[in-house]
From TrEMBL:
<dbReference type="InterPro" id="IPR032466">
    <property type="entry name" value="Metal_Hydrolase"/>
</dbReference>
<dbReference type="InterPro" id="IPR032465">
    <property type="entry name" value="ACMSD"/>
</dbReference>
<dbReference type="InterPro" id="IPR006680">
    <property type="entry name" value="Amidohydro-rel"/>
</dbReference>
<protein>
    <submittedName>
        <fullName>4-oxalmesaconate hydratase</fullName>
        <ecNumber>4.2.1.83</ecNumber>
    </submittedName>
</protein>
<feature type="domain" description="Amidohydrolase-related">
    <location>
        <begin position="3"/>
        <end position="330"/>
    </location>
</feature>
<dbReference type="Pfam" id="PF04909">
    <property type="entry name" value="Amidohydro_2"/>
</dbReference>
<dbReference type="GO" id="GO:0047584">
    <property type="term" value="F:4-oxalmesaconate hydratase activity"/>
</dbReference>
<keyword id="KW-0456">Lyase</keyword>
Length: 340
């Protein structure tokens, strides 16, 4: 089985994002929020069958761990209440996709984070999504300010209540920023990769996993700059008198394979232990074109994993399936439930 641990509903019916725009406009005008959007099952079916499901079939993958559009989370655009409604709308839509296509999608939720608001406020929505909707993880934004990094790092104790709930529910978080409102940082070209890299460095400097040995994070986009600069991070940890990275981070931190060329994927698999790599494509996502050097889609990441000569069949089995089942502790049961 090939499990893609990183997909967003980027093709959601336009009523969905139009509702968010109307909600933001109403907040600005001081008027009452718009009524919930009406989206027909047929619209959802059409968007998935012509989009993500078609690509799954073309590329021979089986299951996508599916979450709301990351850039659409926009935690910096509104306060906690409005973001809570927006998260519910977005997560309910993912739930409908998973109900319609139970073999192909399992849900991961957006959290109603907001700048300056304790992450504790996300616990009710996380519980609702896991306990009632069958979701198996969450996307955690390390910078709800959208590119200005005004909040505390991920190792700050203000995050702890949320982490306690994640551990209790046995769900990991993908550390994933949303859009950027800082014009210095292009969203998917700079802000995403900054977010991945910055989050890893935050984790390196503290003892978060001594407090939460069962907490699990996935760093997407191949871990940002981390694998390429692994020596820098090992060296920084050494200078700070930290233990070896493999001993204090790699039991809890995992990397996806959203690296859109062969040499980068080779490097990821050479530097990061196979146990810590989860297959992903982030399809349909930031990079949608065809690479003229190969004739294949940049985000057809399965080709790169298949082409790494030194990986054994057991290694590929781990990257494609076993690691995802281990990191997303509820995945196997949820899949059985969806197929029963
Ligand atoms: Zn993403």
């Amino acid at each position: 089985m090939i499990i893609d641990c990183h997909g967003h509903y980027t093709t959601s019916p336009r009523e969905h994002e139009a509702w968010r725009a109307a909600q933001i406009a109403a907040l600005k005008d001081g008027t009452s929020p718009p009524p919930r959007p009406v989206i027909a099952d047929e619209q959802i079916r059409e968007s998935i069958e012509s989009g993500q499901l078609r690509i799954q079939r073309e590329r021979g993958t089986d299951l996508t761990i599916f979450s709301p559009r990351a850039a659409g989370m926009g935690h910096h655009l509104a306060g906690a209440d409005a973001n809570a409604h927006w998260s519910q709308e977005s997560n309910d839509l993912i739930h409908r996709v998973c109900q319609m296509f139970p073999r192909n999608f399992v849900g991961v939720c957006q959290l109603p984070q907001a700048p300056g608001v304790s992450p504790e406020n996300c616990i009710p929505e996380l519980r609702r999504c896991v306990e009632q909707l069958g979701f198996i993880g969450c996307n955690l934004n390390p910078d709800p300010s959208g590119g200005y990094w005004t909040g505390p790092p991920l190792t700050d104790r203000s995050w702890y209540p949320l982490y306690e709930t994640m551990v209790e529910l046995d769900v990991p978080a993908m550390i994933h920023v949303s859009s950027s409102c800082n014009p210095n940082f292009h969203a998917t070209g700079a802000h995403y990769i900054n977010g991945d890299t910055s989050a890893f460095m935050q984790l390196l400097t503290a003892d978060l996993f001594a407090d939460f040995p069962a907490l699990r994070f996935i760093i997407p986009h191949g871990g940002g700059a981390v694998p390429y600069h692994w020596g820098r991070y090992r060296g920084l940890a050494q200078d700070m008198k930290r233990p070896l990275l493999k001993d204090y981070l790699l039991k809890n931190v995992f990397f996806d394979t959203c690296v859109y060329h062969q040499p980068g994927t080779d490097l990821l698999a050479k530097v990061i232990p196979v146990e810590n790599i989860l297959f992903a494509s982030e399809t349909i996502g930031a990079v949608q074109g065809i690479d003229p050097e190969t004739g294949h889609y940049y985000d057809d990441t399965r080709r790169y994993i298949d082409a790494i000569p030194w990986l054994t069949p057991a290694d590929r089995q781990r990257i494609y399936e076993d690691n995802a089942r281990a990191v997303y502790g509820r995945l196997s049961n949820q899949l059985n439930h969806q197929l029963s």
